[in-house]
Amino acid sequence: MKRLLGECRDRGLCGGGKVSRPPSRLKTDHGAYSVSLPFQSAMNIILKRIRQRLSPQSFPDTAEELAKSDLFAGWWYYSVELLPGLITKGQYPDSFPMLPRILLRNCDLRGTTCLDLGSMEGLMPVVMCRQGAKAVLATDAIDHCRQKMAALRYYYKASFEFQQVGLMYDLNNKLRKSGRSSFDIINLSGLLYHVFSPLMILAGVRPLLKRNGLMIVSTNVVVDDSFTMQFNNAGSLQEEVNTFWYLSVRALDYVLRYLKLAPIDCLYISHRDIKSSVRYVTDVESGYLSVVCRAKDDPIASREDTWMLKSAQHSWEYAGLVDWDSCNQQAVTHVPYSATIEKNLLRDDTGTVDLLRALSRRTIHQAERSSDAHVLRLADIS
Q1: Which phi and psi (to 5°) does residue 231 adopt?
Q2: Which DSSP symbol is given to 114?
Q3: H or E element: which one contains 161?
């Protein structure tokens, strides 16, 4: 209701930040109270939206109807085939590979419970369902893609739930309140560079993953030998207004192991290989890195690193911002991961992938087929 009232304010139907009230004790010839026109218009919009949400949705079943619909003509993040040959116009070129989608194929999803963060219209939840997941939860800050997500459920006969979570912080507590607190596989992709605090996001998500579960973490990175995060000052990295941080590859590697997430595979695309109207290339070497991690019971320190384990034992932030008790109480899952990575890309002391070393060997320059891209077709099974 608050969001609907806000929409009325945006349309100029409510004054002074509040809905106009009916004049006090002002009577008409029929003895009824008069209602101001702005208030009446605002309430009409609210009631219309409520009726829309309560009534079952229907979607065009013929190509002619769909092609003329607002649904098809509207703004789409992904390119989605809704009926044979009718594909919405998404935001990315068909040559731009969707790395977490490619990596997800190596996960055996049969019978699993999956969580997708920042789902937009729901491409990843659909492929999770098609790969055999038992239950899938899609999430986003707001339900701005509600109708389009419902359309994907309809046209793809996919059964998944959606939860609006607001800002992506403290997800552990938010999802636990709704009874959703344990997942075999979590997709955390395209999110960490859009938030003020990437570590706080990871801290809120980590307790939701089952022991030995899999998490795909994908984000923009700076490629150098530092352990830093680079800020998007003056839009130097991207002009998009919700882009804040690019982690360095080494910093991402370290943070994941610090939070008991072992990198076991990765894929990378350089921003120089992305053909898009969005400017990605800057004066620093950067790209998009997607990492598959296996949940572990302890931090994964390198041989020479004595600080990580001490910090994990004694840091107030580490103990207070991550619900490790919930992590330890999670059931153990056994989700197979089928891909193997070259031994020379693994650290000899931790057995995890050395992400910086792996970049050159795990680089993809473009999508070889539409099912590797940000495109969803009716025949796709993954």
Answers
A1: -85, 145
A2: E
A3: strand 161-164
The amino acid present at 90, given as its one-letter code, is G
pLDDT in tens, 332-355: 999 999 998 999 999 999 999 999
Identify the CATH number of the domain in which residue 312 sits.
3.40.50.150
21 part of a folded domain: no
Q: Examine residue 44 and state whether it is found in any structural domain, yes or no.
A: no
Single out the residue of 213, 81, 96 nearest to residue 155, CA to CA.
81
Handedness of CA 200, 310, 327, 251 (dihedral sign): positive
Q: pTM of the prediction?
A: 0.86
According to DSSP, the residues that pair with 335 across neighbouring strands are none
- Closest by CA to 291, choosing from 311, 264, 322, 324, is 264
Do the domain assignments include residue 231? Answer: yes
- Distance CA(74)–CA(76), nearest Å, equals 6
pLDDT along the chain (382 residues), means of 10: 43 41 37 55 67 70 96 97 97 94 98 98 98 98 96 97 97 95 97 98 98 98 96 94 97 98 98 84 91 98 97 98 97 96 96 97 96 97 95
Contact 210, 297 (CB under 8 A): no
CA 274, CA 277: separation in Å to the nearest integer? 9
CA nearest to 373, candidates 87, 11, 40? 87
Radius of gyration of the chain (CA): 24
Is 121 part of any domain? yes
Instruction: Render the burial of 19-29: b for 16+ CB within 10 Å, e for the rest.
Output: bbeeeeeeeee
Handedness of CA 364, 368, 369, 374 (dihedral sign): positive
Parent domain of 257: 99-376
Domain count, the chain: 1
